[in-house]
Amino acid sequence: MSEANDRRRMRGADVLIVDDEEDIRELIELSLVRFGLGVEAAGSVGEAKEKLRDRQFRLCLTDMRLPDGEGLEIVRYIAAHCRDLPVAVITAHGSTDNAVAALKAGAFDYLSKPVALDQLRALVRSALEMPSRQAEDANPVATQLTGESASMRQVRSLIERLSRSLAPVYISGESGSGKERAARLIHACGARSGRPFVGVNCGAIPENLMESEFFGSRKGAFTGADSDREGFFHAAHGGTLFLDEVADLPLAMQVKLLRAIQEKRVRRLGDTQEQAVDVRIICATHQNLRERVEQGRFRQDLFYRLNVIELRMPPLRERQDDILPLAGTIMQRLAQEAGVRPPRLSPPAERALLAYAFPGNVRELENILERAMALSIGEEIEVDDLYLDPADCDAGEGAGGDAGAPLQDYLDRVERQAIHDALGKTSGNRTAAARVLGVTFRSLRYRMERLGMKGERGSEGE
Question: Does the pLDDT value for residue 413 go beyond 90?
């Protein structure tokens, strides 16, 4: 036994490496020893399971192809018997299917052959910083999504599991259902909580600027590039990149994004060298990505790569039991911010909220309550203070207003809300909002003038 092996055994084993190719195993072992880690090695599935039964490790790295089986067997064994142990797989270069299958089975992350030492270092750092399940259970961040309905308990359980992985996550759900909050919780509950969380609204970026915004640019790369500039991938290095409204990415950008995710490397505009990036990808959209794939508007290979694990945020109308507790939490927070005593809802107001469809989901509930608290007199909020849209109230429930409003009034309300939501998504950029709505900038400006929305917050962004 060599002197290096003697030192490794004396230190104790932090990492289990499972690979039947001695040269690759030696390369990884030497690299990990330089990181100050103790290493054990196994050359088969059977030997790995025996070592996992006999002792505890802090990380397992396994090849996908082994003499007596596949690395997926080890991933599943660890998921069943060593739930606190992060396991990463080593796949052949370009073997995306194997990597995705391993992530779906519970792998923490993956490396491609030939193993790049900078990527190995980043993976090991993230894995060893992963909190234990006991620490996770004590973490109050994991309970920040209010609601005890079955759907919300399932959401919280999945968020806790996702926080222990680096697998890409696709969050689906209607506008206002809490997709970004879920993404932030996944980040905050995991090993990357102390590192950047970079949120990007893909629908708000002009197409001609997308590549430089995502990957950065060197000075002189194009007209106006008077200095080196970091892109979103660099800004999120070591942390999480949240791609909101990812369905709005044009096809040309989808190709570049897919390569960056698979290779874990990006090249700035004007640069000749690629740079390694350690970024976890979480994406979201209110649109149906599967339908867009079928329509040829979203690449199937990118969808397959992003949709490793799907987290569906249920609309508020599907979790009626959560409406009143959620309203209480929101009013408590708003009252605390305003330095006043929290109001209470009158019984008729409670019934009105329970009968309301909430097309804008939790975001709409927050807006309704914030407006009601500003307009109400006294410590109790009445039905009239809520100003609920009659079109979204169940028949027979007194929620204020006339359910038989003229058709044009109803259509104007829908159009006004759609424009308001688009401006909110694009941070007030009217050019981007017009693109989201599928109309020209001139048409949007005309519609806003007709609806009396001249004062709506926004800029032309031309």
Answer: no
Tokens of 88: 């990463």
pLDDT higher at 132 or 92? 92
Could you tell me if 386 and 345 are in contact, meaning their C-beta atoms sit under 8 angstroms apart?
Answer: no
Q: Is 333 helix (H, G, I), strand (E, B) or coil?
A: helix
Chain position carrying tokens 């001609």: 208
Report pLDDT digits (tens) over 306-318. Answer: 999 999 999 999 9
Instruction: Taking residues 437-457, report their average pLDDT.
Output: 76
Least confident of 82-86, 401-405, 453-457: 401-405
> Distance (Å, rounded) from C-alpha 445 to C-alpha 423?
12
Write out the DSSP string of 384-450: HHH---GGGB-TT---SS-TT--HHHHHHHHHHHHHHHHHHHTTTBHHHHHHHHTS-HHHHHHHHHH
From residue 99, alpha-carbon distances to 12, 206, 239 in Å are 29, 32, 20
252: nearest Cα among 305, 207, 206: 207
3-state DSSP call for residue 328? helix
- In 3-state terms, what secondary structure has residue 381? strand
List, in order of start, the domains of the chain with CATH numbers. Answer: 3-128 (3.40.50.2300), 134-312 (3.40.50.300), 316-392 (1.10.8.60), 407-450 (1.10.10)
> What DSSP character marks residue 113?
S
Quote the CA–CA distance of 18 and 52 in Å, as a whole number. 11
Model confidence pLDDT, tens digit, residues 63-94? 988 999 999 999 999 988 888 899 999 887 65
Distance CA 303, CA 440 (A): 29
